[in-house]
Amino acid sequence: MPSAVQTQLQSALDQYLVHARDFDATISADETTQCFNLYLPMLNEVAATFSSSYSSCVKTANAEAANLTAEAAKQQTIYKQEVTSLCSAFTSCDSDNDTGTFFSCYATAANSDVAVIYDIATNAATSASSLAEGLNAIQDTEYQCTNTTESNYVRDTAATYDLLDSCLRYGLPTVSTAAPVPSTNSPVASSSGAPTTVVSTVAPTSNVPASSSAAAPVSTAAPGTPAAVKTPAAAA
Questions:
Q1: With b meaning 16 or more CB within 10 Å and e meaning fewer, what string describes 14-28?
Q2: What is the DSSP letter of 195?
Q3: Is 1.10.10 the CATH classification of the domain at 2-170?
Q4: Which of 7, 10, 83, 103 is the most buried (most CB within 10 A)?
Q5: How far, in Å, CA of 44 to CA of 102, rounded?
Q6: Alpha helices for 171-234 (secondary structure H)
Q7: 5 falls in which pLDDT band (50, 70, 90)?
Q8: Helical H runs in the chain?
Q9: Phi, psi torsion values for 50, nearest 5 degrees
Q10: How far apart (Å, rounded) are the C-alpha atoms in residues 174 and 153?
Q11: Contact 151/208 with Cβ under 8 angstroms?
């Protein structure tokens, strides 16, 4: 995704350069070069920030999903062990050659294992539900993170293009005699049409919501004991 967006940025810049000659500008060729030298590094910085932030969103989500799945795998192993133990109780009855004893053995094993089987069924269903809900919560948080990152990228790129456009039309920005006020918006033109903002105007937005550091829990109740359903915290 980051590479695709950066490709779109380069395409937009190419189109921008093609139509740049249509501007009703009075600046010199040297000033035009200075404008691009000033704002192209800013565009590159915005793109680099986007790529890093987007990758961080994805990596965090993948790590949380892996941790959640690993916990579920531990629970799966416990269930398998419990079922193996249940089967062994019946298998031991098969070695008895006496028919009467065989039936009694099966009846005893079945009676002893009814409660355990019920608990395994209940806990396994709870674990499955918790795992699905946890993975969905992680995906929701990842979406919010990447979506915010993309929004910041589009906003910062558009703001930088506005500054470049103003520079190409009116010339390089000049430092105002008033106290400099940092701004992320395009410069306000003076009565002469020349921008009066400080050169350093746009910084890449970095307020990207990080993925939740705590993945939604999977029920870890041991088979044979009732397990309460654990609902993952809502994604921020």
A1: eeeeeeeeeeebebe
A2: B
A3: no
A4: 83
A5: 79
A6: none
A7: low
A8: 2-18, 29-91, 99-170
A9: -60, -50
A10: 26
A11: no
pLDDT at 201: 46
Global pTM reads: 0.61
The type of residue at 115 is A
DSSP secondary structure letter of residue 189: B
* φ, ψ for residue 142, nearest 5 deg: -60, -40
- Using CA atoms, how far residue 140 sits from 36, 59, 216, in Å, is 39, 14, 12
Spell out the domain ranges in the chain: 2-170
Nearest 10 degrees: Cα torsion 137, 142, 148, 153: -170
Can you say whether the dihedral through the CA atoms of 97, 101, 105, 111 is positive or negative? positive
Around Cβ 196, how many Cβ atoms within 10 Å?
A: 15
Sign of CA dihedral 7, 8, 9, 15: positive
Mind listing the pLDDT tens digit for each residue in 80-108? Answer: 988 888 888 888 887 767 777 888 888 88
Two tokens at 78? 């416990």
